[in-house]
User: Fold this.
Amino acid sequence: MASLQEQLLKAGLTTKQKTRQANADKRKKNKQKRSGVQHEATLQEQVKQDLAKKKTEKAAKDTALNAEKKQQLVAKEQHLRIKQILEHHQLSNVNGESEYNYTFAAKIKKLCVDAITHKALVNGRLALCGWDELTYIVTAETAAKLAELDASVILVQNNKVASEQLDEDDPYADYQIPDDLMW
Assistant:
């Protein structure tokens, strides 16, 4: 039985030139397959390069994830430290009849304190701090420490200290202005 090429030649569907070209292409492909050692070496190099590239990408991704986790851990640690400072240094037993108004979370709030605490808040010896929807009364030194960690914790910290000394030339000396108006 004749090959397909011979049958196509007899039928006139192809020429001798085309069959020679097809045979030459077939020999070249077979030769390349036999000498595939060199081709495989280039494939191995390509695979090594791809692996090295993926390894460096993974290392960069891991470094970014570690930095993010470390940042979250630092934020959590700072949150717990602020909470601990507030709970440890808060003043208690300051309830009284005098009202002190302040804003917390865009709301006006009232705090009933005694007269001594009210005066200390006005004069800046005490400060109000807010954390997790709770209000804490702390000393000015504690408020300064908290401001170093997170300034948004401080709700009220007056910097002025009331002086008992009056200016003799003041025309309004007889008209005392309250330090904290009740509204």
